Amino acid sequence: MTSTQHPPRPFGRTLCAMITPFTEEGALDLDGAAGLAARLVAEGCDGLVLSGTTGESPTTTDAEKTELIAAVRGAVGDRAALVAGVGTADTRHTAELALAAEKAGADGVLVVTPYYSRPPQEAVAAHFLEVADASGLPVMVYDIPGRTGTRIEPETMIRLAGHPGIVAVKDCSYDFLGTQKVLERTELAYYAGCDEHVLALYAVGAAGCVTTVGNAVPAHMAAILDAFDAGDTGRARRLQLRATPLIEAMMGAGLPGTVTAKALLGRLGLPAGPVRRPLLPAGRETADGLLGLYEELVSGS
C-alpha cells in the first residue's frame, strides 16, 4: 500500500500530542512551547495537537489555551497544521473554545467526548454536531472512553461523518474492529492515538497518528510511516517494534503520558517543566529508566 491509497489527511500525517511547557513556578512557558514546536516540526511532525490530554488541557485556562495557539503558530508558521484541544464536559463551553481557537489561528479543533456526565449516544452525537456548527474549523473527534467513561459507538461515528465539518478521529478506543467498520463505511480520516497502534491502524487505511511518544522521538515515529509509504513494510514493522519498550514505559507503566513525556524531555534538556496538580512528577528512577530506553532507541535508529 502506498500513501496515495490513504484517505485525505486534513491535518497532516505525523501529528504530535504536544506537552504544554511550564516554568518552574508553574506558569505557561510560551517561549519553551515555541521552541519545542519548532523542534517537533523540524524532526518530522507535520501537525501538532495542542491542549489535548498530553497538553494538560483540564488544568490550563481558556486564556492560556489561546495564548499557546498564537505562540506556536508564530514559531511554525504554515509548516504544520495546528489542532487545538477544545473539549470539555460542557457543550456551550466547548463551542466557545472552538470559536476562540479559530480566532487564535488554529487549523482545526480536537473535541473529546463529554466526560463525567456519561451522556447516551444521542446526546453524544448532538454535542459534536453543535460544536461542529459553532465555528468554521474542521473537527477531529476524540474517542477515548478509558478517560471519558463514554464510547462513541461505531454507528454514532458513522452518523457524525455525515456532517461536512467533522473530518477526522483521534482513535483511542481500543476497539480495532469498530474502527475498521467506520473506516470501511466513511471517509473520516483516522489518526492512531495510541502509539502501539500506529502501524497497525495505518496499515488498514488510517491517515496517520497523533503520538505522545513523538514528543521525544518525532523522527522515529515519522520514519515508521515513511517506511510503510515507501512499500518497505518490513522496515516499518522493525521500527514499530523497536519503539515498543519506550512506548510501554511512557504509556503503559501506570503513569499518564504527560508525566512520563515531561520527565523524559526534562532529562533531554528540552522545554517541559513541571506537571500541574493533581498530577505529580515522575520519580528519579522512572526518569532514569525513560532516558535509558530513549538512548537505546535512538542509538539503533
Report on the structure:
The protein is of the alpha/beta class. It has helices at 30-42, 62-76, 91-104, 121-134, 145-148, 154-160, 176-185, 198-203, 218-229, 233-242, 244-251, 257-267, 284-300, and strands spanning 14-17, 47-50, 81-85, 108-112, 139-143, 166-171, 189-192, 208-211. β3 (81-85), α3 (91-104) and β4 form a beta-alpha-beta unit. α6 (154-160) packs parallel to α7. The mean pLDDT is 96.
Topology:
Blueprint: E1 14-17, H1 30-42, E2 47-50, H2 62-76, E3 81-85, H3 91-104, E4 108-112, H4 121-134, E5 139-143, H5 145-148, H6 154-160, E6 166-171, H7 176-185, E7 189-192, H8 198-203, E8 208-211, H9 218-229, H10 233-242, H11 244-251, H12 257-267, H13 284-300
Parallel strand pairs: 1-2, 1-8, 2-3, 3-4, 4-5, 5-6, 6-7, 7-8
Helix pairs in contact: 1-2, 2-3, 3-4, 4-6, 6-7, 9-10, 11-13, 12-13
How many β-strand stretches?
8
Query: What is the string of SSEs from the N terminus onward?
Result: EHEHEHEHEHHEHEHEHHHHH
Could you list the spans in which at least 5 consecutive residues all have pLDDT below 50? Answer: none
- Report on the biggest sheet: 8 strands, parallel, barrel
- Mean pLDDT score, rounded? 96
Helix share bin = 40-55%
Main sheet: strand order: 1-2-3-4-5-6-7-8
Distance between the termini: 23 Å
- State the helix count: 13
Note the overall shape: globular
The whole-angstrom Rg is 18 Å
Structural class: alpha/beta
Question: How much of the sequence is in beta strands?
Answer: 5-15%
GO biological process, one term: diaminopimelate biosynthetic process
GO molecular function, one term: 4-hydroxy-tetrahydrodipicolinate synthase activity
Pfam families: DHDPS
InterPro entries: Aldolase_TIM, DapA, DapA-like, Schiff_base-form_aldolases_AS, Schiff_base-form_aldolases_CS
